[in-house]
Amino acid sequence: MSQTPIRVLLVDDQVLLRTGFRMVLAAQPDMEVVAEAGDGAEAIDILRATKADVVLMDVRMPRLDGVEATRRICAAGPDAPKVLILTTFDLDEYAFSGLKAGASGFMLKDVPPGELLNAIRAVHSGDAVVAPSTTRRLLDRFSPMLPSGTPEPQGEVGRLTEREREVMLLVAQGLSNGEIAGRLFVSEATVKTHVGRILTKLGLRDRVQVVVLAYETGLVRAGGGAA
Question: Sheet harboring 105-108: ordered strands across?
Answer without folding.
Answer: 31-37, 6-11, 54-57, 82-87, 105-108
